[in-house]
Design a protein that fits this description.
single chain; alpha+beta; hypothetical protein PF0899 fold; three-stranded mixed beta sheet; three-stranded antiparallel beta sheet; 2 helices; 6 strands; about 25% helix; Hydrogenase maturation factor HypA; metallochaperone activity; zinc
């Protein structure tokens, strides 16, 4: 389960930003999950709550934005959205000549804090 490691690293960054802005508490975190990141949302939510215990982010609201699976089809020369990350064929022409356009990582999009 790599979600715990992702959450630990995200918390480090959150705490750095919170300290830089004089936060006494983090009340909300918005994360964007890349379509090809292999991150399980429920596991991420569980791990995030776990790593935040005893920190200034404990009890904050976690907002997840799951990015769609976007690819460029070399065959039909257009952007396509896949219904599943597991299906790697163009829905237009059935080609498997797809280049991943969507991000495959996890990004902190926004923080909501209470200042001192």
């Amino acid at each position: 389960m790599h979600e715990i490691t992702l959450c630990q690293r995200a918390l480090e960054l959150i705490e750095q930003q919170a300290a830089a802005h004089g936060a006494r508490r983090v009340t909300g975190v918005w994360l964007k999950i890349g379509a090809f990141s292999c991150v399980e949302s429920s596991a991420l939510t569980f791990c995030f709550e776990l790593v935040c215990r005893g920190t200034l982010a404990e009890g904050c609201t976690l907002h997840l934005d799951e990015q769609q699976a976007e690819c460029w089809c070399e065959n039909c020369q257009q952007y396509v959205t896949l219904l599943s990350q597991r299906v790697r064929r163009c829905p237009q022409c059935q080609s498997n000549m797809l280049q991943i356009v969507a991000d495959d990582g996890l990004q902190i999009q926004r923080l909501e804090i209470e200042q001192e």
